[in-house]
Amino acid sequence: MGLGNRWNKVSESPTRAAASGLAEELTAEDLFTEAPPVTDTALDEKLRQAYFWLVNRAVISPFYDVEFSTGSPVTFELGDAGAELHLPTDQSYSSNVLLPLLTFAVGGKCLLVGGPGRGKTTLAILMGVLAGSSAREVRRNVQQGQPQVTVSDLVGMPLPRDLVTAGSLAEIEIAWRSWLTQPVKIIDEYNRIPTKTQSALLTMVAEGYVESHDQMQSTSPESGVESWFFTANDDAGGGTFPVIQALRDRMDVTVAAQGFNNRFFDELVARVEAGERPEDHLPPELVFDADEQRLLEAAIRAVPLPGAVRRQLEFFASHFEFVQHGGRRFEYRTKDTVRTGGGEVAEVIEANSGADLQVDLGSQTENSLSVRSLQTLIRYAKAMAYFRGRAVVGLDDLAAVLPFALRGKLLPNELHPRFDVGADRELATDAISWLADLFAESRRQFTALGLGANDPISDALDLLNQGLDGVTSAQAAQRLTGIETLISEIAKQGKLYGRHFDDLLALKYLHQRYTNYVSWLGFGG
Amino acid sequence: MTQRPRHLVNESLELTDEALPATSVDLALSATRIQERHGDAAGARYRHFIGRAVAAAPAAGRDDLLTLAALAAWRSGALGFRTDALARLERSLAGDGPALPALADALGLGEGGVAPFAALQRRSRFGWPGLHTPGELLAVIGGFRGLYGPWSAPPVAALAGERPGTFLIRTGSSAVSAGDWLLTADVFGHTLMRLAVDETEHETIEADDRWETAGDTAAGLAEAGAAGAVLTVGAYTAQVWTPEEAR
ipTM for the complex? Predict the structure, then answer.
């Protein structure tokens, strides 16, 4: 007997406790209006229902590693090696299902890593089915990475007829592969693809088009929202061919596929006996059509990022660029200067005896955050908030996605004492826990420094942003003095950290703006 | 005994899954909207009430259908419709609206109960024919998360909210596990919203010195002409009672 009926179970609505806005005044007309909020509400609910179907029916993933708690979760200390098990108090999620689903929703790029047979490809295929393709079609369109795969294998080839008769490249018609315009694109084992073919893939992923014989094909599907899923057995540089860094950097999130929990063996046995695959049984009501995909992506982008959360993210990102002996001029004292100059960042960090390595979060990383990484982080934090039915992005939403968005991008400094000895040694290989800890420590420092309540540099930037119209020469001079006072206060502290670097450069920027303004006033009159 | 969240007016309700007829308004859409915003149980109640009401007024025009829909939505627990539904009910009782049998079906009352119900609601959002005795239980709210409720720590204190029918409830006793909730309730339904507590807002909530003296019982704000309902908290639930004699 098949398991058909069991697949059809979709979580009852609502899947989250009622959010705000339910007690507002409504009229009978509201019941009959297909207003945009209905679509939005329905879509975030539908996204959650899809999630619960995936974890409860499709991939059997009883892992709740993306934890949300209000107050303190109940915690158990286990074993003698510092292991802790938390029992979260709010709805928590399984990263290996949630992050791919959010990738589908935002139109991102997800790298699924893990050993063979852990359901990486199945999950990616399920995303394709969620986008409205049949399971058979999605399976057929999965691009298998292997050492012989060529650019033509991937993108298609010119029609042989045209190769003979065409008078110019423009007359050659290309038979493009059909997978190129699918809303969900799956590249299996991408670290087995030859380097040249990886470069062609990079153009598709980065630019959204593909080129062959002077012809161009957009990879955008009907909805305009395309998501990419890559799988790899290894994320540490292994594989048949090393993954080119530019392609690796395009992965918005990296998620490890979890192992199978053997307490759920009965489900496995039932599936073997029934000979069924989950992707063949996705309930039709969970499929997102092209319009819904477009609306979903737009609704996620529209979730506001409040100033208080943005400030915490700014503070976190500020730790990583600066390195004390990275250069001579102040602006060049960065990890990038060292790296592009052929130096070893870890050695330069070690040479700095002035800063406290335990406090200096920047000393734990070999590099800093790229603008692309930060944009990705913001997009996924918005998606997380939207998925949870929140009106705005919260710090907990940001904290939940940050490790997955920065894995493989913010790299640990392996010479840092933290990874060398003591209780934190395991963090050298557990990037997710390390990145989560890094953000938590940054939040603690933010609170300890009282920056939420008193941040004179933000105040100074805000003052400038109000405009210079009507500011007199005397007022500008007063502000210049204020900026110099702030710089001298930092200078008095002796030790210099990453956060000071951004602050000092911002103060220098302000100083320049006011100096130029005062000069301009002088010229004018 | 484990208490389940419920409103007493629904206690003896036997729901029928009424087929929604094709009318000049899209009743199926309205049912979906109630279900989306208030959950499956409210959606089922709405289908029950609107289905029966429309069956009693087969020739109803658009405005009459809107009146019945507003009443059925409110009756099913969507308290956001109360103001509109009540105004429409008053107009209907004055002769400008659906006939009495359809109004009665939309509210789940006998025909004789509609006018007394409207009179009771004019005084209090908790008014309902048959609920006259002070200290009578109106609703049980909340519940332990392990039994599908919202709370993982028991409610420990209650305060009156800023408007009639609203209350603040604090769950959890330690500073780190405390959570504050805003309850908005009427006789048919309620919403329970967790108040955001993050690093910036926590101090404000802590500073609310009313919690210092809050106990397990709070008398809600009075409405014009009637005393407010009373909220008590205990175990993993909160109970709303008619005024006075609350335990």
Answer: 0.82
